């Protein structure tokens, strides 16, 4: 699957965003190594801290279906620059995805930024820091 196709999948996911509070729609598309795509959108709640980002929705969907081998993640929102994932998502992505996996950030203007998981969260805290 091409990078632009994965961004299109993220754009479709974005349409399902449930964002009555922020009105800020985000879409994500997670490509597995065997070519399957899991879409995710952000889902908010009146108890604001319960809001779930698009990236984590996609990752948790895949994981809960037994898919754990990922090849790329695309994220899109209507932002001036390609949408930067929040710190919480960076932490989750860095634990569940390979450190050299491609993360494609995009916006609706067609701006794209491509980086790796380890570039997204350098010096990430991980299990290795707790157990030797
Ligand atoms: O990369 C991001 C950044 C923000 N959000 C969501 C969380 C919340 O619903 C709204 C505003 O922060 O956007 C995401 O889904 N992904
Ligand atoms: Zn997030």
Automatic annotation (TrEMBL):
CDD domains attached to this UniProt entry: cytidine_deaminase (cd01283)
Function, in words: This enzyme scavenges exogenous and endogenous cytidine and 2'-deoxycytidine for UMP synthesis.
Amino-acid positions noted as binding substrate in the UniProt annotation, renumbered to this chain: 42-48
GO cellular component: a single term: cytosol
Cofactor(s) named in the record: Zn(2+)
GO biological process: nucleobase-containing small molecule metabolic process; pyrimidine-containing compound metabolic process
Catalytic activity line of the entry: cytidine + H2O + H(+) = uridine + NH4(+); 2'-deoxycytidine + H2O + H(+) = 2'-deoxyuridine + NH4(+)
Cited Gene3D superfamilies: Cytidine Deaminase, domain 2
Keywords: Hydrolase, Metal-binding, Zinc
The organism's place on the tree of life at top rank: Bacteria
Chain positions recorded as Zn(2+) binding sites: 53, 86, 89
Name this polypeptide is given: Cytidine deaminase
E.C. no: 3.5.4.5
Protein source organism: Saccharococcus thermophilus
Keyword field contains Hydrolase: yes
Chain ranges of the CMP/dCMP-type deaminase domain: 1-128
Catalytic-site annotation from UniProt: 55
Family: Belongs to the cytidine and deoxycytidylate deaminase family.
PROSITE patterns: CYT_DCMP_DEAMINASES_1, CYT_DCMP_DEAMINASES_2
GO MF terms, alphabetically ordered: cytidine deaminase activity; identical protein binding; zinc ion binding
């Amino acid at each position: 699957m091409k990078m632009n196709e994965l961004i299109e999948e993220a754009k479709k996911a974005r349409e399902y965003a449930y964002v009555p509070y922020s009105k800020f729609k985000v879409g994500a598309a997670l490509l597995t190594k065997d070519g399957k795509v899991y879409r995710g959108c952000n889902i908010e709640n009146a108890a604001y801290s319960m809001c779930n980002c698009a990236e984590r929705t996609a990752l948790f969907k895949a994981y809960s279906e037994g898919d754990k081998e990922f090849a790329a993640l695309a994220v899109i929102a209507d932002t001036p620059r390609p949408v930067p994932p929040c710190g919480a998502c960076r932490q989750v992505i860095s634990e569940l995805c390979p450190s050299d996996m491609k993360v494609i950030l995009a916006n609706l203007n067609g701006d794209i930024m491509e980086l790796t998981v380890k570039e997204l969260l350098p010096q990430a805290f991980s299990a290795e820091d707790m157990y030797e």
